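Structure, all two chains, one model.
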Amino acid sequence: GAVVSQHPSWVICKSGTSVKIECRSLDFQATTMFWYRQFPKQSLMLMATSNEGSKATYEQGVEKDKFLINHASLTLSTLTVTSAHPEDSSFYICSAMMGPTYEQYFGPGTRLTVT
Amino acid sequence: QKEVEQNSGPLSVPEGAIASLNCTYSDRVSQSFFWYRQYSGKSPELIMSIYSNGDKEDGRFTAQLNKASQYVSLLIRDSQPSDSATYLCAVKSGYNKLIFGAGTRLAVHP
């Protein structure tokens, strides 16, 4: 099956600093990638849709200046959490869409803790 | 608001039994449907995709789609304790986004 990687798998940072998370599709090209956030025992929440070579589309209520998304190539999208605060602590998961089937393959996730 | 509804469970089945997971969706024009499995603390894993009415089988898993009734189901035969997880039903929206149900928690007991 299709493989998507994420790096780092976990990160602890101090309040006010920025953290970058990378998402890579390893064995297919993905024109569209998605970023989700999941709090404990809650559903996945879509944050934004990332299209290669264009600006990301953010879901309502997601601050685009706080969560910077860059999709520079067909295999790489990055999410930068700027000026992180403890309430940003969460499980961040990316997915990459395989074009013809619309199947989304998820990365293993990044657990962010802001102290 | 386009919705995907699932029974939250937990659905408890004995080992070796058939687990039946159900999902309904509100958008009549949806064409692509997916089942994901999510273990606690892990990211979702794609199990099945289905696009046409009828059944689609893959190993112990069978997905069933009925567009007229706006209903998707997943059957797991010969359930194993390792199948214990949350199963997410997802429907592709017009913008290629997936609309997820809240998930059904399945517990397979020995």
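The first strand of chain A starts at residue 4 and ends at 7.
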